[in-house]
Amino acid sequence: MVAGTFTKTLLSAIFNKVHCLAQDGRDNGFGNGYVWAGSLESGIQIATHHKKPVMVIIHKSWCSACKNLKPKFANSAEIQSLSKHFVMVNLVDDEEPKNNKFSPDGTYIPRILFISPKGSVDHDIYNEDGSSQHKYFYSRPEQIAKSMRRVLEKYKYEQFDV
User: Fold this and answer.
1) For residues 114 and 160, what is the distance between their CA atoms, to the nearest angstrom?
2) Closest CA to 54 of 36, 67, 70, 30
3) Listed residue (115, 121, 144) closest to 50, CA to CA
4) Are the CB atoms for 115 and 151 separated by under 8 Å?
5) What are the backbone dihedrals phi and psi of residue 106, each rounded to the nearest 5 degrees, phi first?
6) Cis omega (within 30 of 0) on the bond before 110?
7) 102: helix, strand or coil
8) H-helix or E-strand containing 84?
């Protein structure tokens, strides 16, 4: 009897914890259809272990351009499909890295950067259809998908886990 009550209590606690996590999530509004790493550090660690590139979205909760991008990103079937070949990380507010390699041409937001499967920021992948002053600013899903395809092409000789 006591064991049954304990099991029910334990399962209830686990379910409630998982349920809460699913509601809060790490998507920060960019879509729960993606698998998000818990932090930049864990994302890079996962990527180097599995030989996958990383997509890092740096944004702020108060930013109107970020708010505008979120539903477009969240609802993009093409980005969701391509994301299976990436470790996905999104960093909001104070999670933004202080290291200047994550702000190669400024600290504007949102910025989307790509990290190689070996763990280094790839400054060669940027929004070719965007501003030359803000190379890592993306406003449309097609721009993001184009860069994602460029990343996959660049690292095609790497061994990706599917």
Assistant:
1) 15
2) 36
3) 115
4) no
5) 135, 170
6) yes
7) helix
8) none
Write out the E strands in the chain: 54-59, 87-92, 111-115
Two structure tokens written together for 86: 């990436």
Pairing mode, strands 111-115 and 54-59 = antiparallel
Is there a contact between 118 and 124 (Cβ–Cβ < 8 Å)? no
Per-residue pLDDT of the chain (162 residues; tens, 9 = 90+): 545 444 444 434 433 333 333 333 489 999 999 999 999 999 999 999 999 999 999 999 999 999 999 999 999 999 999 999 999 999 999 999 999 999 999 999 999 999 999 999 999 999 999 999 999 999 999 999 999 999 999 998 555 444
Task: Copy the structure tokens of residue 143.
Answer: 């721009």
CA-to-CA distance for 9 and 112, rounded, in angstroms? 43
